[in-house]
Task: inverse folding
């Protein structure tokens, strides 16, 4: 049984009620803490809970903005995993800054007439821009990568396609 099935089994009123439990964009944005990246002791239980809420938020259509697709997330995440495999170098942050450029490009491609986004890539980009700006050391990069991995995992668990 996967995570979503477990969640839905635990709550028989499933999707309609679960969508009501999805936090708003403002709650997600206000819940972010920069010290989740800059801490020397790794990410916290609160950071994982925030990542779960954000992953769920990204996985549902709400308020005229469509959910973030798995392919949108994977493009960014695979670049991040390549960086992890190579190893983050504090003296050369070019690849890290290029993640911001990739997000900006994806966000720009997502806009429709009138400048409105079709999907929640704009929210994903906004939060990760904030997080990327905090990364200064290898330890910070590890925290950043762990949080992004948690967001991707919870997005998929919440039914992200």
Result:
């Amino acid at each position: 049984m996967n995570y979503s099935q477990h969640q839905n089994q635990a709550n028989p009123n499933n999707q309609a009620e679960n969508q009501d439990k999805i936090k708003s964009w403002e709650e997600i944005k206000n819940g972010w803490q920069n010290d989740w990246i800059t801490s020397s002791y790794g990410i916290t239980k609160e950071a994982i809970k925030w990542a779960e809420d954000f992953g769920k938020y990204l996985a549902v259509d709400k308020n005229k903005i469509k959910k973030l697709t798995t392919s949108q997330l994977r493009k960014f995440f695979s670049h991040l995993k390549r960086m992890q495999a190579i190893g983050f170098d504090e003296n050369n942050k070019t690849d890290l800054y290029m993640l911001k450029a990739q997000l900006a490009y994806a966000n720009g491609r997502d806009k429709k007439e009138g400048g409105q986004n079709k999907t929640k890539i704009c929210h994903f980009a906004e939060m990760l821009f904030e997080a990327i700006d905090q990364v200064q050391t290898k330890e910070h990069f590890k925290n950043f990568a762990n949080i992004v991995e948690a967001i991707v995992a919870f997005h998929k668990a919440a039914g992200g396609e």
About this structure: The CA atoms of residues 96 and 132 lie 7 Å apart. The radius of gyration is 16 Å. Residues 8-17 have pLDDT under 50 and may be disordered. The chain is about 65% helix and 0% strand.
